[in-house]
Amino acid sequence: MKKTLDDYLSGEVLLIDKPLNWTSFQAVNKLRWEIRQAFNIKKIKVGHAGTLDPLATGLLVICTGKMTKQIDTFQGQIKEYTGTIVLGGTTPSFDLETEINETFPTDHITPELIHNATKQFIGDIEQYPPVFSAIKKDGKRLYEFARAGVAVDIKPRTIHIAEFEITTISGNNLEFRVVCSKGTYIRSLANDFGKALQTGAHLSVLRRTKIGDFNVVDALSPEQFIAQLKD
C-alpha cells in the first residue's frame, strides 16, 4: 500500500540496503530530499539508527517524522555483520580505506588455530577504536588527527561479542559472521584477530545484516525506495 505524507510525518521505519561507497549521511540526505520532492514539502525529520562506513554495505534503519524519537532505542540493539578478514597485512585504517603498510608471515596459521582464536573474542572485551574513525576527541574527529599524522591517545571501550565464527577459509581470506553490541568496530576486531594469530590482518569486506529484529533481506536499495515513492 502506497505511503502518504501523513505516514512519513507520523513516523516510518525504512530499511535501506546501503550501497558501497555511500556514507550513511548521504543515504539519509537522499531519502529526505526524495520525500520532500514527492510531497512538495519544505522539511521533514529523517535520521538513521547507526552509521555504516562508506566501504561497508547493508542494513541502515532510517526513521522519519516522529519515529526519529526511537533512533536511540534502535541504535542500542544487537547487530550482526558478515564480511572478509585478510591475513598477512595491516593498514592504518584497519580496512581498505588506506593501503597496506606492513606485511607478516602466515605460514604458521592452520584452520584449527583460526577457529580456536575466535574464542578469545567472545563475551565482554576491551577494544580500541580505529584511529580512522568518527569518534570525537577535543572537538575533532579521530580521522582528522590520523589524516594529519597527529598521534592521539585513544581509550579502550568495553564491548560485547555474542557470536564470532569463521564461515569460510580461502587461503588468507577468512569469511566471518559476528553478532555484537553497539559501539563494536569490526575493523578493530579484524586487526586484533590478526594479532591473536601472530600475524597482521585487515578488513576487506563488511556487510551489516541485522539490527535487532530488522534484517537486510527485508531492505530496499535507495533506487527501489525512490521508485516505490514515485509509483
Overview of the molecule:
26% of the residues lie in helices and 32% in strands. The chain is built from seven helices and 13 strands. Strands 1, 2, 3, 4, 7, 10, 11, 12 and 13 form a nine-stranded mixed beta sheet that branches. Strands 5-6 form a two-stranded antiparallel sheet. The N and C termini lie close together (11 Å). 30% of the residues are buried.
List keywords for this structure.
231 residues; alpha+beta; Pseudouridine synthase; 2 domains; nine-stranded mixed β-sheet; two-stranded antiparallel sheet; 26% helix; 32% strand
Distance between the termini: 11 Å
CATH C-level name of the largest domain: Alpha Beta
Point out poorly predicted stretches: none
Amount of beta strand: 25-35%
CATH domain fold name of the largest domain: Pseudouridine synthase
Radius of gyration: 19 Å
CATH architecture of the largest domain: 2-Layer Sandwich
Question: What portion of residues is helical?
Answer: 25-40%
Envelope shape = elongated
Total number of distinct structural domains: 2
Mean pLDDT: 92
| Main sheet properties | 9 strands, mixed
The overall strand count is 13
Structural class: alpha+beta
